[in-house]
Amino acid sequence: MAIKHPQYPNDWQLPSAIQCLPSPDWASRVSLSIKRDDTIHPFISGNKARKLYSLIQRWQVSPPQQVVTMGGNRSNYLHALGYLCYQKSIPLLALVRGHEPEHYHSTLSDLKRWQVKLTFVDKLTFRQCRENFENVRLLVKEKDLLSEAESSIEWLPEGGSNVEAFNGIMLAVDELTQIPDVIFVPAGTGCTALGIAAAIDKKGWHTQVIAVVVLKGAESISQSLGKLAKQANTPWPKSLTLEHRFCDKGFAKITPEIKKQKAYYEQLWSLPLEPVYSVKMLNAVKAYCDSGMLDNKQVLLWHTGGLQGDT
Ligand SMILES: Cc1ncc(COP(=O)(O)O)c(C=O)c1O
């Protein structure tokens, strides 16, 4: 049967490159390479491109009149979605966590430039919305923020982690030209790692997928991922391990140590990295290498982009 290849937008650079990385002393017995999803597109890159692919296809046939979502004020997903909606002239309303800052950093400035309607909500309300997306609908109605009839609105969860995103991520595994022994990928909601692992299981590969969780105390993500897998009609992937030991001080806590580690890896491999996700993934890779667990293995690191959030 002919395989239907994804119809990616013309300005996306896909398949993304897989680059070999020179092994430093601490990885002398490990073969390292990296999947450069950060290079897909200047604004819709990394796992955001993968997550938004199916949605872009659907919008080509029937675009919504308005989109509503939520995210942190440096959210890479919000940034990518903001650009996409701007490109397609679809109004986007975003509930943003925390107070409105006096001076906008680059993510917020870009969102403003792309005409995203930003509504800042306090942390408690944001958490309630995160825990139950129904609260987003209630809040938006209560504040009278909608400009369209509710039936024509697309509601997207934080980080875009839904079945459509999961399906888009699964497709990325088709681009691998060799079967790695181990894949490392950073995890926020874990949707990206789940999609990669589900695709690996489906192919029957022996590859282990190590999802390096960047949030502190996020043991419950296995439950939300279990729900997502169920919605996607997929069994829990046997290849997937959630690794919680490298969350450091917690989500987006960019300590001087993290900055130092980022500079070290960037110099080592001449790669652009961001401090929230990829540095923690690399810390996990280094610790696994130090322990000898990856000796003689082909290890693939997944660069999930997010470089815009670092300015
Ligand atoms: C750069 C980057 N890497 C990794 C992730 C984590 O993705 P997920 O929420 O699918 O685990 C995100 C969030 O979308 C991200 O922006």
UniProtKB/TrEMBL annotation:
Cofactors (names): pyridoxal 5'-phosphate
Short name of any one Pfam family annotated for the protein: PALP
Positions of the Tryptophan synthase beta chain-like PALP domain: 29-305
Keywords from the UniProt entry: Pyridoxal phosphate
Similarity annotation: Belongs to the ACC deaminase/D-cysteine desulfhydrase family.
Keyword match Ubl conjugation: no
GO molecular function, one term: D-cysteine desulfhydrase activity
The keyword Chloroplast is assigned to this record: no
Active site feature: S75 (nucleophile)
PTM annotation (N6-(pyridoxal phosphate)lysine): residues: K48
Protein name as it appears in the record: 1-aminocyclopropane-1-carboxylate deaminase
